[in-house]
Each structure stands twice: as structure tokens, then as C-alpha cells.
């Protein structure tokens, strides 16, 4: 009776039943003696090894991409930290170099500000002024960071400008390349004083009020003199690039290449007076 019923089943179903019965028999035999099927078991495991490895590929790829992203982020943070340290060090060195030169020329009598007078607050340039005719950029530091109107801003190689507006979390920096901005400077080689003004472009400045008889040369370095008290002395402003004597007056027409980077400078330093910061800190504590 059972064979006749089994014979009437579809062929696929009969094959499946036969395979199951054979599998059950083999399992029962294997449980009685493990050594009989040991070679077959070893061969089967070896054959399945590539499949196991392929199944682990997504997991390996996930771990690799995660580790790669973490490594890139760690390198980015380390690079930012090193860049910050380098900017701070170079900013201090440029004024120390100026002080040493002045000491040698004036026999140790110097009345300029020292690097220890200022805290260097690192800020990021986050935008430009809406008026394209003005040389103004926006920084990501404001009142909450101790930024005040009139504070000088530099990069690692020279003066950039002064803060003209301060808001809670941002501030506006007027660059010395603006036509309405000027800086009192000293010719480092001779000590002669003059005024540098902006020309409205980020690549050029002009040295004014220099007589034709004055000892100035192409390549002379100009540093801030501190006159007027707006900008502290000793920071690089630029270097004389071209001198032309005109017949119209007694002054020379002198072009100056700026020392600071006004084109693609993403990070700047705000000079903040340490004494003022201490007073503000004391007021906040009270």
C-alpha cells in the first residue's frame, strides 16, 4: 500500500524524500562510528572554506572603511594642531627678530611692545564683506572670545589688519590693503619712518611720504612702528617692490608687496592684551 502511494507522488517530492532518508541513515551511521566519515567531513570543510571567507568580506570591508575614516580624522586633527602651534611660534619669532634688530641699532633702548604682552587668539576666516569694494573679512570669534574693536590681527608672516566691528560670536576685520586703511611703519634697515596705505587689492600696498633723497631700496623690509598706538610695533607689513621718482613733487612713488597672505588665508591670530584680558576675567568672576 505504502509503495503504491509513494509511487503516485511527484518526481521532485520523491527525490526529496529519498535524500532525506539517506541523510538520516548517514547521520545515524556517523553517530555510531565517527571515524568512518572523517575523510569525507574533512574534505567537505575544506571545500566550504572559500564560502566562509566570502561571507566575511562585508564585515572586513566595514571594519576597513571604519578604520580608514578614523585614521583620516585623526590625521586631520593632528595636522590642525600642528598648524596652530606653527602659526603661534612664527608669529612670536617675527617680533623677536624685530626687537633684536632694534636693540643692536639703538643700543638696547627699545620702547616697543613685547610678545609676552599679548595673548594670541586663533580665529578662522568664515566669509567676506558684502561690499566687494572693501577689503573686509568675517572671523568666527567675537565678544564671547574677548575680541574688541581696534585689536590687531596677524598671520604667521605679517599684519593683516584691525577689528572694526564685534558681535557675540563673530567680528569684521578691515585689512590693511583697503584704500581707507594705513599703517605707520619703519624701514628696518635704516629706521626711517613712513606710512603704508592700501590700494584696494590684496597683492599691493603703497609707501607714502618718502622724499627722493631718502635712503630706501628695493627689497627693504617694512615693520610696524607703533606710532599712534593703533597697531603694536615690530610686526612685518611688507617689502619694497618698486621705486619710481616722478617730476611732479619731491616724494617717491613706492610699491610694497604685503608680508601677510591676503588671498587664501584661512586662519589668523588676534592680538589680545593680556592685562585687559585679566581685568575682564576679574570682572566676570565678580
Explained architecture:
This protein has 286 residues and is of the alpha+beta class. The chain contains four helices and twelve strands, in the order αααββββββββββββα. A six-stranded antiparallel barrel has the order 1-2-5-4-3-12. A six-stranded antiparallel beta barrel has the order 6-7-8-11-10-9. The chain is rod-shaped. The N and C termini lie far apart (103 Å). The model is unreliable at 106-114 (pLDDT under 50).
Derived structural class: alpha+beta
Shape: rod-shaped
Query: Uncertain segments of ≥5 residues (pLDDT<50)?
Result: 106-114
What is the residue-averaged pLDDT? 79
> N-to-C SSE series?
HHHEEEEEEEEEEEEH
Largest sheet: number of strands, sense, barrel closure: 6 strands, antiparallel, barrel
- Count the DSSP helices: 4
- How are the strands of the biggest sheet laid out side by side? 1-2-5-4-3-12
Distance between the termini: 103 Å
Helical fraction? 25-40%
Overall strand count: 12
From the alpha carbons, calculate the radius of gyration and give it in angstroms. Answer: 38 Å
What share of the residues does DSSP label as strand, in percent? 25-35%
Provide keyphrases for this structure:
alpha+beta, six-stranded antiparallel β-barrel, 12 strands, single chain, 286 residues, 4 helices, rod-shaped
In terms of topology, how is this protein built?
Layout: H1 2-7, H2 11-32, H3 38-105, E1 118-128, E2 136-139, E3 152-154, E4 159-166, E5 171-175, E6 182-187, E7 193-198, E8 205-208, E9 221-224, E10 236-245, E11 252-258, E12 267-273, H4 274-285
Antiparallel strand pairs: 1-2, 1-12, 2-5, 3-4, 3-12, 4-5, 6-7, 6-9, 7-8, 8-11, 9-10, 10-11
Amino acid at each position: 500500500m505504502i509503495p503504491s502511494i509513494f509511487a503516485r507522488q511527484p518526481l521532485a517530492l520523491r527525490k526529496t524524500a529519498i535524500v532525506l532518508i539517506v541523510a538520516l541513515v548517514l547521520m545515524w551511521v556517523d553517530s555510531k562510528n565517527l571515524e568512518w566519515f572523517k575523510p569525507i567531513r574533512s574534505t567537505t570543510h575544506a571545500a566550504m572554506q572559500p564560502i566562509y571567507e566570502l561571507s566575511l568580506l562585508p564585515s572586513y570591508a566595514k571594519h576597513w572603511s571604519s578604520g580608514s575614516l578614523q585614521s583620516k580624522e585623526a590625521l586631520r586633527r593632528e595636522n590642525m594642531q600642528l598648524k596652530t602651534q606653527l602659526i603661534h611660534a612664527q608669529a612670536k619669532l617675527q617680533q623677536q627678530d624685530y626687537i633684536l634688530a632694534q636693540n643692536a641699532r639703538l643700543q638696547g633702548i627699545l620702547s616697543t611692545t613685547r610678545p609676552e604682552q599679548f595673548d594670541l587668539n586663533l580665529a578662522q576666516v568664515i566669509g567676506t564683506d558684502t561690499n566687494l569694494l572693501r577689503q573686509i573679512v568675517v572671523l568666527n570669534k567675537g565678544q564671547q572670545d574677548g575680541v574688541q574693536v581696534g585689536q590687531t590681527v596677524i598671520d604667521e608672516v605679517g599684519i593683516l589688519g584691525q577689528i572694526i566691528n564685534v558681535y557675540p560670536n563673530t567680528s569684521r576685520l578691515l585689512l590693511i590693503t583697503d584704500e581707507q586703511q594705513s599703517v605707520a611703519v619703519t624701514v628696518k634697515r635704516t629706521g626711517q619712518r613712513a606710512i603704508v596705505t592700501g590700494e584696494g587689492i590684496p597683492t599691493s600696498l603703497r609707501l607714502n611720504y618718502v622724499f627722493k633723497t631718502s635712503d630706501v631700496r628695493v627689497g627693504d623690509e617694512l615693520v610696524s612702528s607703533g606710532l599712534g598706538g593703533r597697531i603694536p610695533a615690530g610686526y612685518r607689513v611688507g617689502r619694497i617692490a618698486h621705486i619710481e621718482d616722478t617730476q611732479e613733487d619731491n616724494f617717491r612713488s613706492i610699491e610694497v608687496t604685503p608680508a601677510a597672505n591676503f588671498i587664501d588665508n584661512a586662519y589668523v591670530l588676534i592680538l589680545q592684551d593680556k592685562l585687559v584680558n585679566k581685568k575682564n576675567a576679574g570682572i566676570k568672576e565678580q
